[in-house]
Automatic annotation (TrEMBL):
Subcellular location: Cytoplasm
Family from the record: Belongs to the aminoglycoside phosphotransferase family.
The enzyme's E.C. designation: 2.7.1.81
Top-level enzyme category: transferase
UniProt GO molecular function: hydroxylysine kinase activity
Catalytic activity: (5R)-5-hydroxy-L-lysine + GTP = (5R)-5-phosphooxy-L-lysine + GDP + H(+)
Primary role: Catalyzes the GTP-dependent phosphorylation of 5-hydroxy-L-lysine.
Keywords: Cytoplasm, Kinase, Transferase
InterPro entries (UniProt xref): Aminoglycoside_PTrfase, Kinase-like_dom_sf, Pseudomonas-type_ThrB
Top-level taxon: Eukaryota
Descriptive protein name: Hydroxylysine kinase
Aminoglycoside phosphotransferase domain mapped to chain residues: 4-82
Length: 175
């Protein structure tokens, strides 16, 4: 799977990198690093807003679309609807920084690439530090399965789910 994602990335994303808008990335937007607080809900459902972020040691120069890909990957790990959650993350991100068509076109492979990066680095780090395996293998608990499912569903199906969900926020009918 990793070799397939690398091949697809080289063939389909590398040439588009110059079309991505650059920024400073946090690089580790996961559920442990995002602070939320309750806010007034528009409906009867509980509502929260982001009140802060923690852990800046993974910051780097990159692109906006990298940041949303990282966040989607981490939220997939925690969600009961791993593919579906990507659309909710995308909607929130695009409420502040809408992605360009080129960035949206690369998002699927960027999320797959982040899964690969995280899973391979975890396996390598585990070999170096087996005493820390429980923490290092958090992504691996479900990550391989999520990556495999994304690849089996294919880019078109996953993107359709993400983009339909993100659009629904604009209509007021979030799924």
């Amino acid at each position: 799977m990793v070799e397939r994602v690398i091949r697809l990335f080289k063939n389909e994303v590398t040439a588009k990198l110059s079309h991505f808008r650059e920024c400073i990335n946090h690089g580790d937007l996961n559920d442990h690093n995002i602070l939320v607080e309750p806010c007034e809900p528009a409906s009867g459902d509980p509502a929260f807003r982001v009140s802060g972020i923690l852990d800046f040691e993974d910051m780097s120069y990159g692109c906006y679309v990298f940041e949303v890909a990282i966040a989607i990957m981490y939220m997939m790990i925690e969600s009961r609807d791993p593919v579906g959650v990507g659309g909710h993350v995308l909607a929130g991100f695009e409420s502040v920084v809408p992605l360009t068509p080129a960035e949206r076109g690369a998002l699927f492979l960027l999320v797959c690439g982040r899964f690969c990066q995280s899973l391979v680095m975890a396996a390598h780090s585990c070999r170096l530090h087996p005493e820390n395996a429980e923490y290092l293998m958090i992504t691996a608990k479900t990550g391989w399965r999520h990556l495999q499912r994304m690849l089996a569903l294919g880019r078109a199906a996953v993107e359709e789910t993400w983009f339909r969900t993100a659009r629904s926020y604009g209509s007021g009918d979030s799924v």
